[in-house]
Model the fold of this input.
Amino acid sequence: MNAHRKMDKPDSRNRLDDMRQGLVGTAMDRPDGPLKVSGQATYAHEWDVPDMVHGVLARATISKGRVTDVARDEILADDAIHAVITDDRLLRRPAQGGANEAPPQGSKQVDYFGQPIALVVADTFEQARHAANNLKISYEAEGNAAFDPEAAGTETDKPEDDQLDQGDLDQAMRDAAFTVDQVYRTPGHNSAAMEPHCAIASWEGDKLTLRGSYQMLNFNINELADALHISPDNIRMLSPYVGGGFGSKLGLSAEAVAAAIAAKEIGRPVCVTLSRQQVFETTVRRSETRQHVRLSCGEDGVLTGLGHECLVSNLPGEEFYEPVTQATHFLYGGKNRRLGIEVARLNRTCGGSVRAPGEAVGMQVLENAMDELAEAAGIDPVELRKRNIPEQHPEKDIPYSSRRFTEALDEGAKRFGWDQRNRKPGATREGDWLIGHGMAGAARINVLSEAKAKVTLLADGSAVVETDMTDIGTGTYAILTQIACDMLGLPADKVETKLGDTDYPAGPGSGGSWGASSSGSAVFLACEEIRRKLADKLGSDESDLDLADGKVGTGDSAQSLADILDGEEISAIGHIEPGKTLEDWQQATYGSYFAEVAVNAVTGETRVKRMLGVFGAGRILNEKTATSQCYGGMIWGIGSALTEELAFDSRDGHIVNHDLAEYHIPVNLDVPQIEVVLLKERDEFASPIQAKGIGELGICGAAAAVTNAIYNATGIRVRDYPATLDKVLAGLPDE
Amino acid sequence: MKPFEYAKATARADATAQAANDATFIAGGTNLLDLMKLEVMAPDKLVDINRLDLSEISETDDGGLRIGALVTNSDCAADKRIRDDYPVLSRAILAGASGQLRNKATTGGNLCQRTRCYYFYDTAMPCNKREPGSGCQAMEGFNRIHAILGASDACIATYPGDMAVAMTALDAEVEIEDKTGDIRHVPVQEFHLLPGDHPEKDNILESGDLITAVILPPPVDGKQIYQKVRDRASYAFALCSVAAIVKMDGDTIDGVALAFGGLAHKPWRDEAVEELLVGQQPSAELFGKAADQLLAEAQGYGSNDFKIPLTRRVLISVLKEATQTGAAS
Done:
């Protein structure tokens, strides 16, 4: 039984507001929480598979060229070593998110330093690692590798459908009362998820079971099948728990294919896990960016022109590029617009999706430029943004769906005490510390993805939700349980949500913030169908069904679901597809950030003292997990502003700081008390449950609030991220 | 990780005998195990010294303290005698690593902590420290955390620790027992070496030498400061740190000890800087001269150029704070 909905029309029924069980929106604890904190949730590397051996990938130590020899015999002389795999099917690069097919394969060609070349399989992980470390690989290096996106000789190309030239920006700049014309740079990032990538492959005849850590099983299974040249029908992938992804596990990476090939070859299950260094070198990185921003406005601060022209990088042949201008297209007005992306082709670790690709870096810079414009025009930064919120999409003739940008700005300003802020840069000092305040807007596109979920109301009146959707630490187990509970009138302990198994109906995967609203809608639709069947049994209308606590109705006339089911079970598959509402309305989520920083007048060190985020993202499904997503985004925003940077060696393009000691994500002491406020919102255009994505919104501009506050504290504009102390120091007066 | 033998030492003589026979000591292992996993270090044999009786902090006859080599960083920093009489040491230790690491890391092991040079940590890179004669990739590479003082053409790595910087300012000594059972004392200041032509040698320890303790001299008067500047608020190595012990006599600087971390292959101490300050009245001009003296030979290598102005500012600021009369330390 299938309940299918293509989102061609808005859905303003707001049905989840009417359900008496009332779990949706609450801060319900995660059902998986106790398992995770007590070590009982099984992550990829923790499966106890009998007879399993271990593989470790050996890496390229040149940046471009060909492998001429792998000295496998030396390694294989050791009895503990089972195989040295140099199969043409090994992945040379990770798959991009949603690729649905194998990425470039065959490791004889070397495209970047650190690329996987071979898999060494041994009895133990330690033996395999030692052998892989000492595997002699010979190369024929090519001398024309490129490592610097801005170097004169570097090849670049411009993706055709991401260039906009509307009106006459140059003229608008000349005619404007106030302008900003600046170049900003943001560094590369690694997802740095807590759980390194890992896969355990085991074969029974032609059937492969792959236990791994992946975000999008519905696509990953096809990528794996294509890479191995087998049918996806012969594969089962399991990722019930994923220790963070942030984009790095959207597409299949080298360990999965290597484990599958090795397991087949030696006839035993093989576990391949990446070291932290390999996670940095062989999974996708966020591209560094060079962003040229031009803003022009009249005396009233209303934008007349907006330019956002960006240079990013990736390996030759990769279609993905960091979509830096994604939110710039719709956030602010301005008739004259020039937006564009240029991609430099480099021999460096593959670029790909890292949390909020596009907005994470684009909004960060756009919101710096808006701060500069506010100052130039002498207009309050909050007010400047409000004056530039367009009625209609500034480039396409379409309206906006629900948009709570103004409210987020006003509410944030009120709660933060924005009217009490420093107005003059560099004017407030406490001891050695200069105090400053800054704010920024948040915006992120909203996406609905095709998703299926099966819900079964069992004869005993409990229910099971099944989808291959993943929970990457985001709260999927909780929110799908909550939706099913409310729709079927069940308490939380009567619904079991089962995820991360490709034997279940195909979910949307976790990525691009679409997971909750898409898989949630599929569960919602399945539950509606079950309600219809229940109503049929009762001879009533589905819309009249009053379900709560396992019963229909209230008081003495209440009937238990188990009685109504009378030994039967009802199951339905919900199937949501995106439709016209995604094309005909500009859908996005919005918010605001406010930050107070202290900058040390002696050392240039910046510490964030407090930070507030106010967000509107449609219906909030779980207040706790949604808030946690925003915390995480804002913390990464602090890292983006102050510390995080992939350092590449300029001579061979290798990632120099490829561990968590020297790649500085914020630690507890870098993170102050963060306040997150979620605005009440229902977006009828977004999904049947009026929810939008919230997983990435917290980072989309957060760093700008911090660097704008640094400017307010010191009078120093750092336009080259991160704002490490050396960049601030250069502008500080002598003590 | 290369396969290795593992033995537990039952007595100091047993430990030094095994070490003389090419074994490497392991205590907390917080640095060594990481290096072994990466095969930056690949010892054939480990001698576990954790069972030796070296975990006490005791008072010495002359009123100082003897910190056993196996005293953990956490215990050392929390010891009341150290907090009261040697606050610069307690603060320096707490400025380093994380709580978990400090619980495991030991006093002797911390002295032997190796550089964090990115190229040292990557066995695909030439590195004179890891593989003598192979070259230095840091010099013309990414060298944000590298030395500005005392570097050589062979190596620009820094000693990364905090504890030894404070110990250097305190004129502490390292107690070492050799394979014959002889005990010698070496000032912490002389324990670490400059890289010169042999950057593979971090310190003066010879085969079979076992650090048994660090001896602190009797407490000295004066204000004690440890200031550490780093890229994030915690769990980052010093870009520059200063351990300062300054005694004032009225308006005059009566005594001063300054040691610097994050700048060189060893905790850096410059007697000329201290001599320049002693007997003088504090002034911006004086502090500027002290910074000039300290940094006269300083050299940046690109990404670490900022350490020169940074160190200047930090030194001046620390001296200002240390010479303010009336305030408690």
About this structure: Chain A touches chain B at residues 59, 61, 126-127, 129-130, 133-134, 277, 432, 602-605, 607, 642-643, 647-651, 654, 656-659, 661-662, 664, 666-670, 724-726, 729-730, 734-735 (CB under 8 Å).
